[in-house]
Design goal:
It is a single chain. By secondary structure, the chain is mainly alpha-helical. Helix 2 runs antiparallel to helix 3. The protein has three domains: 57 residues, no CATH class; 115 residues, Tyrosine recombinase, N-terminal domain (DNA polymerase, domain 1, Orthogonal Bundle); 218 residues, hpI Integrase, Chain A, CATH 1.10.443.10. Strand 2 and strand 3 form a beta hairpin. This is Site-specific integrase. One of its GO terms (molecular function) is DNA binding. It comes from Hominibacterium faecale.
């Protein structure tokens, strides 16, 4: 379907509606042509429609941000090899933060002032669910995505000359930064460990409780634990090989891919007590495999339901929230347990460079910016220290 909008400069904007976007809304393509006659305009519209259908329609400087984003994602997925998980994150970020403000705005009419106002708005009111302030990191990611889209329009499409996102400062957020007091104290950790150990005795909770222990004592991301397979667990050397993640992206679904950066593909050691927990979990799964016989689906993942298929990546998060509330424990998130792991490492005197490698950060700068206040310069073996730490704080419980 084609529609026309007559400009005051002797040109007509042709709009073609064809197909749907990732969120179910119609796809619209735009092209400006000189106006001569109505007949020629219909011919131009027919040629434009053919380009759209054949996937060769190009965008112009007067196209909208929606059109630019679709072209950006398509180009980077097909030609640059953008990972499915990253593409999903981009789409979610675009939907939640960029589209609401810029969706139908023309590329060539967005100014630095517009971008500055947008950054200020999402910093204070950008939270998708609450309408409250966003964390500076999320604002930074949204601005980075928008800037990448404009750079694509400049250097790849050559339809504009300037990037309005340059030299935009992110305002200070009202969202408080994490500090040492936000993490569980040793006494709170003892209570958490004891309750988790009790939950591990329940066949319905053994998987979730073990996942929580894995994150607490390895610093793995939740998606990395969900992507972990038994073949990646070396019980003889107490090592894990991390090269895959399973994550859930809203409006996209569950994605299985390599971790977010090449540095996230890594080998890390785990403390001995965690190896015992993993062996218990594997025995639990083998019991159900024998019980269900051919009905059991042996997918090889560490985190599975009783039938053998992988856990939904969000299941442990929901279980953990219910667990905390039921036991009147300090509210936190599964991802914050990764931060708690870093806090434990800092208490043990582990160097920040070693913690960075363990976390799978691309460089130590990321770790330093987030956790530098936690660390000092004492060097020790991480896994042995974690094992000693666990036994030390659990000693009062006579376990």
């Amino acid at each position: 379907m084609a529609s026309f909008k007559f400009r005051g400069n002797g040109k007509v904007q042709i709009t073609i509606t064809h197909g749907t976007k990732f969120d179910g809304t119609p796809k619209r393509f735009y092209r400006e042509v000189p106006y001569t006659t109505d007949r020629q305009l219909q011919i131009d519209a027919a040629l434009f429609l053919a380009d759209v259908v054949n996937g060769v329609a190009s965008i112009s400087c007067s196209s909208t941000i929606d059109t630019l984003f679709e072209s950006f994602i398509k180009e980077h997925t097909v030609d640059v090899g953008l990972k499915g998980a990253t593409s999903g994150r981009y789409e979610q970020l675009y939907n939640n933060q960029i589209a609401k403000y810029f969706s139908s705005r023309q590329i060539n009419k967005i100014t630095r002032s517009n971008v500055r106002e947008w950054v200020k708005h999402i910093s204070n009111h950008g939270h998708a669910k609450t309408g409250g302030p966003l964390k500076p990191k999320t604002v930074k990611n949204a601005l980075s995505l928008l800037s990448s889209m404009f750079n694509y329009a400049i250097f790849d499409l050559e339809i504009i000359d300037k990037n309005p996102c340059e030299k935009i400062r992110i305002p200070k957020s009202d969202v408080p930064a994490k500090s040492d007091k936000d993490f569980y104290s040793e006494q709170e950790l003892i209570s958490l460990f004891l309750l988790l150990l009790e939950k591990r005795k329940d066949p319905r909770s053994i998987t979730h409780a073990t996942v929580i222990f894995l994150i607490l004592f390895t610093g793995m991301r939740t998606g990395e634990v969900m992507g972990l397979r038994w073949e990646d667990v070396n019980f003889e050397e107490n090592k894990l090989y991390i090269y895959e993640e399973r994550i859930y992206v809203a409006n996209v679904g569950i994605l299985t891919d390599s971790p977010k950066t090449p540095h996230s593909i890594r080998e890390i050691s785990f403390p001995a007590f965690l190896g015992d927990m993993l062996k218990d979990l594997k025995a639990h799964q083998q019991h159900y495999q024998e019980l269900l016989g051919e009905e059991y689906q042996n997918t090889g993942f560490v985190a599975v339901i009783d039938a053998g298929t992988p856990q939904h990546p969000r299941n442990t998060y929901k279980w953990f929230k219910r667990f905390l509330k039921a036991n009147n424990l300090k509210d936190t998130t599964v991802h914050d347990l990764r931060h708690t792991h870093v806090a434990i490492l800092s208490r043990l005197g582990i160097k920040i460079i070693d913690a960075s490698k363990r976390l799978g950060h691309a460089n130590t700068r990321i770790t330093q910016e987030t956790y530098e206040y936690l660390f000092n310069d004492i060097d020790d073996d991480i896994s042995n220290e974690l094992d000693t730490y666990y036994k030390k704080i659990m000693e009062p419980a006579n376990l």
